[in-house]
């Protein structure tokens, strides 16, 4: 089983790079992604603030699931957009475990 800490270490650096780019490229045609970015920023800040402790992220992940229809990737987006949703879903799943 993959732990939240392992997934966090693996995904947060990539998300840090991908999320702003995807927001810039797809934010016009997918304005909901701006909310995804806001929630990601909150998750990232809480993770950093928590240090070695487990951050409280239930609310953020619940909002992400609702906003993204459980991380369903729109049909007209690039691989980076899909990668962001996949990494967020992986983080969410590890957090819930």
Account of the protein in words:
By secondary structure, this protein is an all-alpha fold. The chain has one domain (4-96). Helix content is 72%, strand content 0%. Helix 1 packs antiparallel against helix 2, helix 1 (4-26) packs antiparallel against helix 4 and helix 2 runs antiparallel to helix 3. The chain starts with a helix and ends with a helix. The model has no long low-confidence stretch (mean pLDDT 95).
Secondary structure topology:
Elements: H1 4-26, H2 32-50, H3 58-67, H4 79-96
Helix pairs in contact: 1-2, 1-4, 2-3
How many extended strands? Answer: 0
Tell me the fraction of residues in β-strands, as a range: under 5%
- What is the number of helices? 4
Number of domains: 1
- Gyration radius, to the nearest Å? 13 Å
| Distance between the amino and carboxyl termini | 9 Å
Please state the overall shape, judged from the principal axes of the Cα atoms: globular
Low-pLDDT stretches are none
Instruction: State the helicity in percent bands.
Output: over 70%
Helix-strand sequence: HHHH
